[in-house]
Design brief:
With 217 residues, the protein is an alpha/beta fold. The chain has helices spanning 28-42, 54-57, 61-66, 73-76, 112-123, 138-141, 171-183, 192-201; strands at residues 2-5, 51-53, 79-83, 87-89, 94-96, 131-134, 150-160, 163-166, 205-209, 212-216. The longest helix has 15 residues, at 28-42.
Length: 217
């Protein structure tokens, strides 16, 4: 199982610590050159800024509900956090504070989604039958999509007059709740039904619909 997350708009700013080490980030061999180019075009000073674990830098609603610090280290490696600046990082990768919206276009780089797509297609695992749980927001879903693995998107709905209605304000919290349930499980789910069962066991009301895990809030 892999869990795909977006970054959060809210970020903590590390006050001290060694700067980012690009060679130590996830998939450095495949993505290192692209990260160098984006940093050069965006803000080279970020190479010298204090860095901390991505799990501590990202502080938005999803991450607060997920509580990555309480997730076992082995399970944290099942999490990939997408980013317009880094492409993708793992929770324990050390990064500085930054602000780089996913629609930002840089000279020589262009739109982040198109820029990162070839590198991510080369780097990210995409095994037949593997379960990938997608909790990314819309801007990041176009960065990468698996061609062989089984993709399960997590959405949030409320019921109005007996009909489901998508809710954006609760989606991040609901995704954090689902991610927490899956990552703290003794055994990771291998299929959508297993993911739904773990979410239900955690007290969530969910439904499986055409490749989506819908949380009813």
């Amino acid at each position: 199982m892999l869990i795909l997350l977006p970054p959060s708009e809210g970020k903590a700013e590390p006050e001290a610590g060694a700067p980012v080490e690009l060679g130590a980030l996830a998939f450095a061999e495949e993505l290192g050159g692209r990260r160098e180019a984006v940093l050069d075009a965006f803000d080279p000073a970020l190479r010298r800024a204090p860095a901390a674990a991505a799990a501590d830098v990202y502080t938005g609603v999803l991450f607060k509900r997920l509580e990555l610090a309480r997730v076992p280290a082995k399970a944290r490696r099942q999490v990939l956090i997408f980013s317009a600046l880094w492409g993708v990082v793992r929770p324990d990768d050390r990064i500085p504070h930054y602000k780089f919206p996913p629609k930002t276009k840089l000279e020589g780089i262009g739109a982040p989604a198109g820029y990162w797509r070839p590198g991510l297609a080369e780097a990210l695992p995409d095994e037949e039958g593997e379960l990938i749980v997608d909790m990314r927001s819309g801007a990041y879903t176009s960065f990468w999509k698996p061609k062989r693995a089984r993709l399960l998107a997590v959405r949030a709905f409320t019921e109005s007059d007996g009909e489901p209605k998508a809710v954006s304000h609760m989606a991040k919290a609901s995704r954090g709740d689902v991610a927490r349930a899956l990552l703290r499980a003794k055994k990771a789910p291998s299929d959508p039904e297993g993911a739904a069962s773990l979410a239900e066991a955690a007290g969530l009301t969910v439904e499986l619909n055409d490749g989506n895990l819908d949380v009813i809030v």
